[in-house]
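agent> fetching stored inputs for the inosinic acid docking request
agent> found them:
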Amino acid sequence: MKKIVFATNNKHKLDEIRKISEGKLEILSLNDINCRTDIPETGTTLEENALIKARFVKDNFGYDCFADDTGLEVKALDGAPGVYSARYAGEDCRAEDNIRKLLTNLEGISDRHAAFRTVIALLIGDEQYFFEGAIHGKIIDEKRGESGFGYDPVFVPDGYGQTFAELGEDTKNNISHRAIATTKLIRFLLKME
Ligand code: IMP
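agent> prediction call returned; pasting tokens
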């Protein structure tokens, strides 16, 4: 079975990808390969950050590897918070701080269009590939729902009347930016087998 590292220790992401790959790939986490480094995300695009993480593992541990990076891109804010989504309100801030800043910056703005975008960088042998998934929707002006994380309580995907946080994990994981990118990656890897 093909062995590949996913440069993360995020349990949700690991569970999700193992589910999508239906046990046909052996997916190792950073912990599994004893990589204890907090790989700095110093890029200015999602592509760069994903590549930095995958490259770190490939160069230091020798494994084929993939890594992801995700951002919320809000049209009226020229694509912000984008690559800085995790630390929009400052280093080590909480999700609710980021949401508060986002809603403040969108006050009085009627164009609420936004998209979550995930980029996955894959380094396999000597080759490099990118996979992308996006979901479009709108930012509402108050938080609704309890599930999920990050900006989920204020993001309503197109075609739905509820936020990601109201729709719940199962529905979200079927339609999300990350699920789209991850499914493309897994199809590609299984075709290579
Ligand atoms: P990461 O690249 O997956 O770590 O995501 C970076 C940041 O984007 C997170 O810290 C969240 O603020 C935001 N984010 C990523 N994916 C989601 C999602 O599915 N829902 C809500 N926010 C997300």
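agent> quick read of the result: The two ends are 9 Å apart (CA to CA).
agent> awaiting further instructions
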